[in-house]
Amino acid sequence: MRLARILLIAAGLLAPGPGRAELVLVASVRTAAVEVSRERAENLYLGHATTLADGTPVKLIDLPNGTLRDDFYLKLTGKNPAQIRAYWSRLVFTGRALPPREASSTAEARQWLLDTPNLIGYMERTDVPPGARILQRLP
Questions:
Q1: Residue 112 sits in which domain range?
Q2: pLDDT digit string (tens) for 75-92?
Q3: Closest to 46 measured CA to CA, from 95, 2, 79
Q4: Separation of alpha carbons 113 and 105, rounded Å
Q5: pLDDT digits over 20-41, tens only?
Q6: What string of DSSP letters covers 80-139?
Q7: What residues are paired with 59 via a beta bridge?
């Protein structure tokens, strides 16, 4: 069990190679200039925080279930898909937090990033809409 976790984390930490996407955390076009530390990003995506360090409330988006989403959570939190599902199930059941809003596709996530202020999402670097700000690279 421990070896499997170590291997999953190690795989998630490898830099993108041929065929692997470079994932980035991005702020919407209509968000004031912000900086988000990796720790704050993790706290946002684990439901521990709903605001930026300066107190600005933000909304989060998730991509649909799949490889990009799984890679994102593994790289940001070190949790695999089953762990993330169980984690969010507990938070929702106890009423402590709601998970990020799920886009039906990368195209929909891109559109939300163009239209919605104070929105943070993640996607492949090549899919970032013009004007959106890259907050973190997730190698």
A1: 2-138
A2: 999 999 999 999 999 999
A3: 79
A4: 13
A5: 679 999 999 988 878 899 999 9
A6: -HHHHHHHHHHHHHHTS--PPEEPSSHHHHHHHHHH-TTEEEEEEGGGPPTTPEEEEEE-
A7: 119
CATH number of residue 114's parent domain = 3.40.190.10
Judge contact between 23 and 68, C-beta under 8 A: yes
Number of domains in the chain: 1
Cα–Cα distance between 35 and 40 in angstroms, integer?
Answer: 10
CA-to-CA separations, 99 to 17, 42, 90, 93, 125, in angstroms, rounded: 30, 13, 11, 11, 23
Instruction: Give dist(CA 44, CA 120) in Å, integer.
Output: 10
Average pLDDT of 30-55?
92
Question: Taking CA 132 as the corner, what is the angle to CA 129 and CA 135, rounded to the nearest 5 degrees?
Answer: 125
Residue 51 per-residue DSSP state: B
